[in-house]
Write a structure and sequence with these properties.
The structure is a single chain. This protein has about 290 residues and is mostly helical. It contains twelve helices and no strands. The protein has helices spanning about 1-35, 45-55, 75-85, 90-110, 120-135, 150-165, 170-180, 185-205, 215-235, 240-255, 260, 270-285. It starts with a helix and ends with a helix.
């Protein structure tokens, strides 16, 4: 009897794996269609050059930007060797495909419990890719060039998938990995996971799954992994005078990235479409059983 159950499990596994691989491939192509603009993208020239420089400091050794502190060390550690040995345009395309695949895996994991049907998941990923491009108000994106935040968002999607399954400790660990890639993307996800897990625990009047020894180990591991991304970011302003930090923050927000960080500079049309999308999602959520 046990042997028969083992055979059934193995047979089911062999059926599921090819389907998952095929779905990942299809989802990757959906993301590629949504974000395959010419290389290099506006930011790829900076990040890929920094990745190459992190491995080969003699390349453009006197460049001020390349010699500045690295805020995305894990991304440079992973992509740096390839960026140093190949053309930057080649590294951009390889990194893009790797990012799209990571997003595909993360997205499938996030929606698997919600949409058991492949066609429903295909519709969901199509809507997701369109929404990611056409409903933002601060010029942000996740499907496109090769940057650290793409891989961070993939891990965030994976974390949501764990959260949907009620496995908050695993969700926290994946959020920590996302923070290692991109402190802002992953850091906000860690805050969200902690908040939602606490609310769910209060509603159900039970203990969160990370309050046991095993769960606590994942919490600590998540913090340690996240620290790998947060520490370099903190070091960038360590030992700098307060007035210099304030001046740098003003330049960063007002002069360099107002379209991302200064709400008063956002285009009204972008704000309007974003608010309409939020209202639509709220109405849809309220209407669902």
């Amino acid at each position: 009897m046990g042997q028969m159950e083992g055979e059934k499990t193995r047979y089911g596994f062999l059926n599921v794996v090819p389907l998952a691989l095929a779905e990942w491939a299809i989802f990757t192509c959906v993301f590629a269609v949504a974000g395959a603009w010419p290389a290099p993208d506006v930011n790829e020239g900076y990040y890929l050059a920094k990745a190459r420089h992190s491995v080969n400091p003699e390349w453009c050794e006197n460049d001020f930007f390349l010699n500045s502190e690295d805020a995305h060390g894990l991304f440079f550690l992973i992509l740096g060797p390839f960026a140093a040995s190949a053309k930057l345009s080649t590294a951009a395309w390889v990194g893009r495909w790797a990012g799209w695949l990571a997003l595909a895996v993360g997205f499938r994991h996030a929606v698997m419990q919600l949409f058991p049907s492949f066609l429903h998941r295909l519709f969901a990923i199509t809507m997701f890719s369109l929404a990611a491009r056409y409903t933002t108000m601060a010029g942000e994106w996740m499907i496109g060039g090769c940057e650290a935040k793409v891989f961070a968002w993939a891990l965030v999607l994976g974390a949501w998938g764990e959260g949907v399954r009620g496995r908050w400790a695993y969700a926290w660990l994946l959020s920590g990995a996302a923070t290692a890639f991109h402190p802002l993307v992953g850091g906000w996800m860690m805050i969200s996971i902690a908040f939602v897990a606490l609310i769910q625990s209060i509603k159900r009047r039970d203990q969160i799954d990370w309050l046991n020894l095993c769960g606590l180990s994942y919490v600590i591991a998540g913090l340690v992994v996240a620290f790998y991304g947060v520490w370099p970011a903190l070091q960038m302003s360590s030992g700098v005078a307060a007035d210099i930090r304030e001046q740098a923050a003003a330049i960063y927000v007002v002069d360099r990235l107002p379209h991302h960080l200064l709400p008063s500079s956002f285009q009204e049309s972008l704000v309007t479409r974003h608010l309409l999308a939020v209202i639509f999602c709220g109405v849809l959520y309220a209407a669902l059983p």
